[in-house]
């Protein structure tokens, strides 16, 4: 149950890449996080410019962890961040546990994906839109920061963070 006497964590999220805004750096998403009823659930209440109306509007988003437990009941929250940047073209891939998702902006076109990885790195496609083939396909767990991954189209993605 929500306790109004507790000040919730406040976050400001700025965008390096955005699927709906060419000028991603101008996007400012600001909100407060409230714990949900169940473990791994939270409610974000905040405001940002609505891309459809162009007005700064309030929003609510429900978040669920989605991180599975391993055989010993421990969350696998290991992951990495990969970046691609060449001129105005940008891409970002984030993996946390078994969930991997990415966004790509290339010459005004957008590519998005979300995959769930299983045993032996098998991949279940949850969603793929646009230029999803331009993303690195076979990145194993635990790449090192600065590791590079080539895609069939000749792009080089760089691991900028790994944990």
TrEMBL record:
InterPro entries: Hri1, Hri1_N_sf
Gene3D superfamilies in the record: Protein HRI1, C-terminal domain, Protein HRI1, N-terminal domain
Source organism, top-level taxon: Eukaryota
Name listed for the protein in its UniProt record: Protein HRI1
Organism field: Pestalotiopsis fici (strain W106-1 / CGMCC3.15140)
């Amino acid at each position: 149950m929500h306790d109004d006497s507790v000040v919730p964590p406040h976050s400001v999220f700025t965008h390096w890449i955005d699927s709906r805004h060419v000028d991603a750096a101008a996007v400012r998403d600001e909100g407060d996080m409230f714990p949900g009823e169940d473990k791994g659930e939270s409610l974000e209440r905040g405001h940002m410019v609505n891309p459809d109306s162009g007005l700064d509007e309030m929003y609510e988003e429900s978040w669920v962890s989605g991180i599975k437990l391993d055989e010993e009941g421990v969350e696998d929250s290991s992951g990495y961040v990969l970046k691609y940047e060449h001129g105005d073209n940008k891409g970002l891939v984030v993996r946390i546990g078994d969930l991997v998702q990415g966004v790509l902006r290339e010459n005004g076109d957008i590519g998005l994906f979300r995959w769930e990885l299983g045993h032996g790195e098998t991949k279940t496609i949850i969603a793929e839109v646009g230029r999803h083939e331009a993303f690195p396909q076979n990145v194993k767990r635990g790449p090192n920061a600065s590791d590079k991954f080539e895609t069939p189209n000749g792009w080089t993605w760089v691991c900028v963070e790994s944990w």
